[in-house]
Design a protein that fits this description.
heterodimer, A: about 600 residues, alpha/beta, five-stranded parallel β-sheet, 16 strands, about 40% helix, globular, B: about 220 residues, alpha+beta, five-stranded mixed β-sheet, two-stranded antiparallel ribbon, 7 strands, about 25% helix
C-alpha cells in the first residue's frame, strides 16, 4: 500500500499544473516522505506529518486534481496504517514490492531467511557443496524443509510474478540435500561449552525445540530438552506421514544436530513430571516452551464419542509412532487443512480401508491445505466432498455408522477473507461411514503450561501461550515460547524460525542485553557470478517435480516426490532471474 | 452593494470587491505572497485562504480571487485556516529558507519547525514577475513553462526576449530573491543592481546561479 500511494504521488507530482503552491510542492513532499518510508528510512513522526500535509493539500488547492491528490495517501493511511508502521518500525514490506526493504524476494519471504537466490545460483554453477552450506547456515533442517516446507519463497519468486513460472526452489533444495550428507557440514561454534556454561531447558523436541537447542549449544550453552514422547521430532515425526518425509531422512537430520552439549530426556512431560518453577530451581537460566499443538479441537456434534471417531492428531500419532491402523472400511475425514489431507492419504494406504472421503464446508479453493497435497490426494483416489457441514455422527450400538451432513452455499466474506459457508435448510442427507477422522484445527495443552508455573503464564482463547511476537517472551521473565504452542498450528519452517529466534533472544536474556534490537534488512551481499543462459532455458517452463506413479504409491509409505536429475536441476536453477545482482557488486567493480 | 459577514461582523461592500480587499479594509490581517496591489490576483501561493460557508459545506478559498457574495459568511482566522496557513508557510520555508519575506512570515505566524528536507530554491513560482512584466511593464518577456515539478519561469527558449527592456521590474517584486540580491551587507551583495541600481561589479564567476533574467545585468553589465 505504501507503494500504491507512492506510485500515485509520483504520477501526480508530474501531472499537477504547478500553479497552486500546495499542490505542486505538496505532492512532491508527500512523494518524498513515501519514498523515505518505502526505503526504510522513515520515522514515526513522518507519518503524522504526511497525514497533516495531505489534509492541507486537499483543503487548500483550487481544482479537482489538487483536492483529490491526497486521497491515495489519506485512504491508505486510514485503512493500512499498520503497513506504513511495518515499513518504518520493522523495516519489512509485506507486499514484497519496496525494493530496498525486500532485496531478493525469496530470501525475505523465507521465515528463516535462507538465501535462496544464492544456493540456486550455486546449483546453476554446479557447486553443490557451496549450495548446501548456504542452505544449512540458515536452516538446521534442510532435508526436512526440502520436502515439507510450504515454500513461501516460490510464492514471492519474481520469475513467478512475471510469467507464472516460479523457480521450483524447494525441488532444487531437495536436489542438493539428497546429494550432500548432513554430517559433512560443520557449524561454527561461537563459544565453547564448559561445566560452568549457563544451562537452558527446552520443553519439546520438535522443530522449534531442536533448532533452539542446536543454536544455543553453538553459542556455548548447556541445553537439556524434555520430550514427552520416546523419540525426538515432534510433529515432524508424529503427524507428517512417511510418504512425505521418510523417517530415515528425518532421523539422520536430527542426529546431525545433536551433540554432547545437548541432553534429551524422553518421556518427561511438562505439568506431569516437571514444572517451570522446578526447572528454575534446578538451575536453568531460561526456559523455552516448544510443546507444539497436540490437542485436537472437538467437532461439538452428537455422537462424537462413539467408537470409530478419531481426532486427526491422535490418529496420525498412533500410526506414526505406534503403527496402529485404526481406520477401516469407508473413512470420512472432516476438515480441509493439511492434517485432514495427511490423515486422508494415510488412511488410504491402510490395509482395511475401502474408500476415503474428505468433507469440507467451503470449496476446494478455500481449503487451507497446500494445493499440491490436495491434488496428490485426489490423484490417489481420495474423494472430495465440498460445501458440506457435519450435523451429527450416526451411531449403531456405540459404533460409527455414518454421518449426517447439510449442504452449504458460500455467503459473505468473513474475517479470514474467505466466504462464509451458509447451510441450506432442508438439504440434510446421510452418508454411511465406518470410521471418522476429525481434523478441524489443533490447540496446545495450555493448561499444563499454566499449571506448571507458580506465576501463571498468560494464554490466549485460541489455546496458545501469549508471547511478544518479536521477542517470544511470555509474561514470566526467562520463559520463552515458540512454534505451534505460541502460534497455533503452523508450518515446520515457522517453527524453525521461532527456534532460531528464541536462541538469539535467550542468549541476549542470559547475557543481560536488550532483547528487542533494531530490525535489519537482509539484502543480498555475496556476489555469485551468473551463468550464461541460452534463450531456450530462459523461455523454459517450470520443472515438474517427478512423482511416483499413483498405482504404486497407494500401496505403501515410500516417498511420493522424487529428486530432480542433475540436468533438470541445472536448467531450473539457470532460469532464476537473479534479483540479487542488483544489490551486489562484482568484486572487481568494488575496488 | 453586497451584504456579508466577516468573522461575525456584518459588512457591506461593492460588487466585485475581493474577500482579501474587504477583510483588509476591515482590519483583519491576511498574509499574502503572490498578491500585489496593481497586479491581477493570481491565487497561487494559497497563503490568503479563508474559510467560507458553514457546516459540511464549509471550504477554504483563496481570498485574493474570491469576490464578495450576498450573505457569505467568511472566517479569516478559523483553526482550519490557521492550520493550512502554517503548513503552507512550513512548505515555503522548506523550499526557500533564504527569503526574507518567507522568514518574516514564518516568525509572524509562529512556524517554529520545518520538518521537510531542506531545499534552496531560487523561485517559488508566485508569478509576480510574470504579471509585473505583462501588466505593468507591458513586456510579456517572461512566462511559465512546464508543469508539476518541472514548472519554471523564463524566457522562450531561454534566450533573451526582444520584448525585455531590462527594466528590472521582475527583480523588484520577487519575494524569493530579495535577500540574495541585496544581502544583509550591501558590500557582499551578489549584484544588487536590480534593487539599488548601484553596480558593485563583482566577479561574475562566483555567482553562477544568479537570480537574474537580465542578461547582461542592467547595473553591472556583466554577461552571465
Amino acid at each position: 500500500m505504501v507503494d500504491v500511494a507512492k506510485y500515485f504521488m509520483n504520477f501526480l507530482r508530474d501531472e499537477s499544473c504547478g500553479k497552486c503552491f500546495t499542490c505542486r510542492k505538496g505532492t512532491q513532499r508527500m512523494w518524498e516522505i513515501l519514498d523515505d518510508v518505502s526505503r526504510g528510512r522513515g520515522n514515526g513522526e513522518q507519518l503524522g506529518l504526511l497525514q497533516e500535509l495531505a489534509e492541507v493539500v486537499k483543503d487548500t488547492t483550487m481544482c479537482g486534481l489538487g483536492q483529490t491528490a491526497s486521497n491515495p495517501v489519506l485512504s491508505t493511511l486510514r485503512y493500512f496504517r499498520h503497513e506504513f508502521e511495518e515499513h518504518i518500525h520493522k523495516r519489512t514490506c509485506r507486499a514484497g514490492v519496496c525494493k530496498e526493504l525486500v532485496g531478493a524476494p525469496c530470501q525475505t519471504a523465507c521465515p528463516v531467511g535462507t538465501e535462496a537466490w544464492r544456493y540456486v545460483a550455486h546449483i546453476a554453477r554446479g557447486e553443490l557443496e557451496e549450495a548446501y552450506r548456504v542452505i544449512r547456515e540458515a536452516n538446521p533442517f534442510p532435508s526436512v524443509c526440502a520436502r515439507v516446507c510450504h515454500h513461501p519463497c516460490e510464492e514471492r519468486c519474481r520469475a513467478g510474478t512475471v510469467s507464472g513460472q516460479a523457480i521450483a526452489i524447494r525441488a532444487l533444495k531437495r536436489y542438493v540435500t539428497d546429494r550432500i550428507d548432513p554430517f559433512s557440514y560443520k557449524p561454527v561454534r561461537m563459544r565453547k561449552v564448559t561445566k560452568s556454561s549457563p544451562a537452558v531447558a527446552i520443553v519439546g523436541a520438535g522443530p522449534a525445540g531442536l533448532t533452539c537447542a542446536h543454536y544455543l549449544s553453538l553459542m556455548g550453552y548447556r541445553v537439556t530438552i524434555f520430550e514427552a514422547e520416546q523419540r525426538a521430532g515432534g510433529m515432524m515425526l508424529s503427524a507428517i506421514p512417511a510418504y512425505r518425509l521418510p523417517r530415515e531422512v528425518l532421523e539422520k537430520e536430527i542426529a546431525s544436530l545433536l551433540s554432547k552439549d545437548i541432553a534429551i530426556k524422553y518421556g518427561v512431560a511438562l505439568g506431569r513430571d516437571i514444572t517451570i518453577d522446578g526447572l528454575f530451581r534446578d538451575g536453568y537460566k531460561a526456559i523455552f516452551l516448544a510443546l507444539g499443538a497436540h490437542k485436537s479441537r472437538r467437532l461439538g456434534v452428537e455422537g462424537e464419542d462413539a467408537e470409530g471417531v478419531f481426532s486427526s492428531i491422535q490418529y496420525l500419532r498412533s500410526f506414526n509412532l505406534e503403527e496402529k491402523q485404526q481406520a477401516r472400511g469407508r473413512v470420512g475425514v472432516i476438515g480441509g487443512g493439511n492434517s485432514a489431507v495427511d490423515a486422508a492419504r494415510v488412511a488410504l494406504r491402510q490395509r482395511d480401508v475401502r474408500s476415503v472421503t474428505i468433507f469440507y464446508r467451503r470449496t476446494r479453493e478455500e481449503m487451507p491445505a497446500f494445493a499440491e497435497e490436495v491434488d496428490a490426494a485426489v490423484q490417489e483416489g481420495v474423494r472430495l466432498e465440498t460445501l458440506v457441514s457435519p450435523l451429527q455422527i450416526l451411531t449403531r450400538k456405540g459404533r460409527v455408522a455414518g454421518l449426517r451432513l447439510i449442504r452449504n452455499v458460500l455467503g459473505d466474506v468473513d474475517a479470514t477473507g474467505r466466504r462464509r459457508p451458509v447451510p441450506v435448510p432442508g438439504s440434510e442427507y446421510d452418508c454411511e461411514l465406518d470410521s471418522i477422522i476429525v481434523a478441524i484445527s489443533e490447540g496446545s495443552d495450555v493448561d499444563s503450561v499454566a499449571v506448571a508455573s507458580g506465576q501463571k503464564i498468560e494464554t490466549t482463547p485460541q489455546e496458545t501461550v501469549k508471547v511478544d511476537p518479536d521477542t517470544l517472551c511470555t509474561n514470566v521473565p526467562g520463559v520463552f515460547a515458540g512454534g505451534d504452542v505460541a502460534r497455533g498450528p503452523n508450518t515446520v519452517v515457522d517453527a524453525i524460525a521461532d527456534g532460531k529466534r528464541a536462541a538469539t533472544m535467550i542468549d541476549r536474556y542470559v547475557r543481560g542485553e536488550q532483547l528487542q534490537q533494531p530490525p535489519e534488512v537482509r539484502l543480498p551481499r555475496v556476489y555469485v557470478p551468473p551463468v550464461q543462459v541460452s534463450e531456450e532455458i530462459a523461455a523454459a517452463r517450470r520443472v515438474e517435480t517427478p512423482r511416483a506413479a499413483v498405482e504404486w504409491r497407494k500401496r505403501g509409505f515410500a516417498e511420493v516426490e522424487m529428486s530432480l536429475t542433475p540436468e533438470e536441476a541445472a536448467r531450473e536453477a539457470s532460469r532464476c532471474l537473479r534479483c540479487d545482482l542488483e544489490f551486489v557488486q562484482r568484486p572487481e567493480a568494488r575496488a | 452593494m453586497v451584504n456579508l459577514t466577516i468573522n461575525g461582523l456584518p459588512v457591506q461592500f461593492e460588487e466585485g470587491t475581493t474577500l482579501l480587499e474587504a477583510a483588509r479594509f476591515m482590519g483583519f490581517p491576511i498574509p499574502t505572497l503572490c498578491y500585489l496591489e496593481g497586479l491581477s490576483p493570481y491565487g497561487a501561493c494559497r497563503l490568503c485562504v479563508v474559510e467560507i460557508g458553514e457546516g459540511p459545506q464549509a471550504k477554504l478559498v483563496t481570498s485574493c480571487t474570491y469576490p464578495v457574495q450576498e450573505g457569505l459568511k467568511v472566517r479569516t482566522a478559523s483553526s482550519r485556516v490557521l492550520r493550512a496557513r502554517k503548513m503552507v508557510i512550513e512548505l515555503l520555508l522548506a523550499s526557500c529558507p533564504q527569503s526574507k519575506v518567507i522568514q518574516d512570515l514564518a516568525s509572524k505566524y509562529e512556524v517554529r519547525q520545518q520538518r521537510f528536507k531542506q531545499e534552496y530554491e531560487d523561485c517559488i513560482l508566485c508569478g509576480l514577475c510574470v504579471r509585473m512584466c505583462a501588466e505593468q511593464m507591458v513586456g510579456k518577456a517572461i512566462g511559465f513553462r512546464g508543469r508539476g515539478e518541472r514548472r519554471s519561469i523564463g524566457t522562450p527558449f531561454d534566450i533573451r526576449s526582444k520584448e525585455c527592456r531590462l527594466c528590472g521590474g521582475c527583480m523588484y517584486v520577487c519575494p524569493a530573491c530579495q535577500l540574495r540580491c541585496t544581502y544583509t551587507e550591501p558590500e557582499k551583495a551578489i549584484c544588487g543592481g536590480c534593487a539599488n541600481l548601484s553596480p558593485p561589479c563583482v566577479e561574475k564567476e562566483q555567482f553562477d546561479d544568479m537570480m537574474c533574467y537580465m542578461d547582461p545585468c542592467v547595473a553591472c553589465e556583466i554577461t552571465k
